[in-house]
What does this fold into?
Amino acid sequence: MKREGQISVNSKNMFPIIKKWLYSDKDIFLREIVSNGCDAIKKLESLRGIGEAQLEDGYQPKVIVTIDSEKKQLIVSDNGIGMTEDEVERYITQIAFSGAEEFLEKYKEKSEESAGIIGHFGLGFYSAFMVSDTVEIETLSYKEGAKPVHWVSAGEDSYEIEDGTRTEHGTTIIMNITEEEQEFLQESRIREILHKYCQFMPYEIYLNPHDEERPVYDKDGNIEKNEDGTEKKRIVKPLPINDIHPLWLKAPKDCTDEDYKAFYQKVFMDFNEPLFWIHLNVDYPFNLKGILYFPKQLNRMEVMPGQVKLYSNQVFVADNIKEIIPEFLLLLKGVIDCPDMPLNVSRSFLQNDGEVQKIAQHITKKVSDKLHQIFKNDRPSYEKYWNDISAFIKFGCLKDEKFYDRMKDILLFKTIDGEYKTLEEYPKAEGNKIYYVTDENLQAQYISMFKENGLTAAVLTHAIDPHFISLLEYKNPEEMKFLRIDADLGEALKVSQPEAESEDAKKAQEEENNKLIECVKACLPDEKLEYKVESLKATETPAVILLSEYARRIQDMNKVLGESFAPEGQVTLVLNSENEIVKKIPSLTEENRKLVCEHIYDLALMAHKPLSAEQMSKFIARNVKLLELLAE
It folds into this structure.
């Protein structure tokens, strides 16, 4: 017999507020309803485990999602524990609505905090009203002699309840979708939501399941025929849309490399194989399982963002929750399943929660332990991985002091000779200087000078490297000082001067150098340019440009801050007195001297930074002029 009832809480205004608040996340309703179905199955299996429930032979736990476009219904059905009429009254009209009201009251006035609620868990059954005009329940309890129950409500302050028609234990939620939310009657949209939230839920989930007839093929690939000439058919049963045994739940010893690679491709749709991975499997002092992958970096000039998916009991919560997963680890790809993580809380709460911080610290330690293991047991592989993992490690050192302390002994520098050295192994120049290059093509002239004189330099081409070397200098102020390869000319690059050289000879050389500087200075338009003469071993190099390390870092900082018109640091043109062309400059005609000096300056500038459009045009025109002179 049908009867009406009143919902015990004031629900009339709840739905409009929640719908507005969760406008961008309304698809969570399906996660909540399907999760409830899985919970109902789990409860039934728990009762069977303690002998309080008897299940039919061949029982297959499952959740079925069906779309009825004609009736404009989205239906979620499980074969779990089910409910009696009294339980419907209690759990649906009292607890479910009261829980939703409490959820709303707690957060509706805290707009900023509400926007940061992790996963929006807690709405449960009430979330169905976000997309529905009315919601119906057909349920039958597992208890012997129970009667089916039908319940319906528009989500306001009343409901109707009567005898139902269900014949199998479990619960069916029928959502009569509103005109505004018709997208949730599209199979592709529902499949997308199920894939996002329910891909690894613990019980099989089916979408619009139906048996399918397919042709039978012989070993040659031809369709087999029946005696009457018709095509042979076979019945194919529907497959679940989820994987109920995700790889992270298995013991690492039971997983092969191929398993890990296949799982990576399946979850992240990345068909570049990961470099390596870390399988997390912790039961104490908290429950944590997961797999973190180190992906190949396709663009080694920038830090490529990763994706770490957070789950709770195989239910997707959100991507990249930096309050639980340290920010630098978000450069990796992976899945973390943490049932102990509090849900339906704000990000600010997580930031200050001691248990959550322990989880983050444990994950960080496991990552550093894995890297140490590879370095110690297989250094060639570690060196091979370095170009891909260095940005991640450097970012981690910048963000987490404990991570830096763990990693400092296995930080590597790639040299211009292609070798990989730790900080302890790296050969420093006089004054504990470490020279580095930021562009191996642009700075090829300096690199060649270094190699010819038995010197080395570190290759630091990533955008994060300027920040990283500042950290290293701060941590080791007496042990290292970084200089770009064009910031200084070490004594090893210069021709040794005789110690017994007389004062007169020194004075004569100084006068000759000053005369050379005045000749060159008169030919170049840059009044801010400083000049210096050195005797360099690289006799084929007429001049080089130097910019002090301090000036360059200030210049780089201004660029980062967007100050595009900030003044450049002091640039010095170093003339090589050992170069034959430089030696002839004072004796050239005025016209040729200007042509040669401008060309020498541009050649030096090109090894220091790219020429501007105007400078390049003049350089090309000057090349043509030089060719004309040679052809005369």
Summary: The first helix runs from residue 14 to 21. The CA atoms of residues 369 and 406 lie 9 Å apart.
